Structure to design on (314 residues):
């Protein structure tokens, strides 16, 4: 069968809503796009452990510490599912990790902002995990089987993450004047960076059209951002918090919240490595990788010994 016929058959499978599995034929570009997106997603989960991890030792109670520990541990697990899912496309774990550590691969812009107070932990759970759920519920219907299955599991955990964040937000918003001030300050600092998580406007998104044609994405960056705003403005108002956007207005006709323009210079600046915490995040990841060398070596040695034992027994 010619490459063109294969590509046509592949597109028909996608259009019929079939799932593509690792051994199926796929266009090289589909494979490349998925490796790019899934490995960046994995990196985001792993780098995403750092802003909240920073507060584990300073959690205000044992209950909060246990919740935060298990949340951060979940993010590590998400990274592992996603690295494994990326390997099903023929990418080597070593190569994708090298791309992160050498600064060639991107990870979500949101993790380049500092966590200045405990209220930031609450707001990350509510807004950042809230944004992740909206994006990942869509990706759970993606055309690539291993990615969509990883997303189903990840979304279940993210939904717990969001609930614990919102519970904390509601508690602080109903707390002392100092707590109310802290939580509003955290919302003021995280709102706009969270809107940036969804990526550039549709007309400035070079990858969207191809990803939508291939059923990897089923909604555009702007559509997802709008769903996020509609849901979270209501949640903010329900607990008496303000959204830091003077242009925010409900449109009765469209039944959507209209909102102001994102500072795209800030977004691209962060994506290019010049955000407030980019250098610090990469330094921490590189050190962690270096410190984990002996663990990787021990695991390899263990696997080698197991293989030898099996060979002897057979
Ligand atoms: N940050 O053509 P576009 C979590 C890049 S972690 C940085 O629209 P696409 C959590 C984009 O990569 C989960 N870069 O791209 C963890 C592209 O550059 P390249 C985070 C961004 O792929 C711990 C260029 O801009 N979620 O939940 O169609 C604690 C043009 O963009 C960003 C994911 O990773 C950004 N925000 O759409 C708490 C979701 N936006 O690669 C929570 C998976 C865009 O061509 N990824 N860029 O050089 C996606 O859904 C999509 O890849 C994106 C971008 C929406 C991010």
């Amino acid at each position: 069968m010619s490459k063109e016929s294969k590509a046509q058959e592949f597109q028909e499978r996608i259009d019929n809503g079939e799932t593509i599995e690792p051994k199926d034929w796929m266009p090289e570009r589909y494979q490349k796009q998925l490796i790019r997106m899934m490995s960046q997603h994995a990196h985001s989960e792993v780098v995403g452990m750092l802003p909240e991890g920073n507060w584990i030792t300073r959690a205000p109670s044992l209950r909060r510490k246990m919740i935060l520990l298990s949340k951060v541990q979940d993010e590590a697990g998400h990274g592992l599912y996603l690295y494994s899912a990326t390997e099903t496309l023929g990418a080597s774990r070593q190569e994708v990790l090298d791309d992160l550590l050498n600064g060639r691969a991107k990870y979500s812009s949101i993790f380049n902002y500092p966590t200045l107070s405990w209220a930031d932990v609450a707001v990350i759970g509510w807004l950042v995990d809230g944004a992740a759920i909206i994006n990942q519920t869509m990706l759970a219907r993606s055309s690539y089987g291993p990615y969509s299955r990883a997303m189903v599991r990840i979304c279940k955990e993210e939904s717990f993450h969001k609930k614990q964040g919102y519970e904390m937000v509601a508690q602080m918003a109903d707390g002392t004047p100092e707590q109310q001030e802290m939580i509003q300050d955290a919302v003021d600092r995280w709102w706009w960076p969270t809107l940036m998580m969804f990526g550039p406007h549709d007309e400035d998104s070079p990858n969207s059209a191809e990803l939508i044609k291939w059923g990897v994405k089923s909604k555009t960056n702007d559509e997802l951002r709008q769903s996020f705003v509609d849901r979270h403005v209501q949640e903010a108002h329900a607990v008496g918090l303000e959204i830091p956007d003077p242009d925010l207005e409900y449109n009765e006709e469209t039944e959507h919240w209209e909102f102001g323009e994102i500072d795209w210079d800030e977004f691209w600046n962060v994506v290019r490595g010049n955000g407030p915490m980019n250098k610090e995040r990469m330094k921490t990841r590189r050190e962690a990788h270096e410190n984990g060398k002996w663990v990787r070596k021990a695991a390899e040695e263990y696997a080698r010994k197991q293989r030898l034992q099996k060979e002897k027994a057979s």
Remarks:
- The chain has a mean pLDDT of 97.
- Residues 3-275 form a domain with the Ferritin fold (CATH 1.20.1260.10).
- Strands lie at 249-251, 256-258.
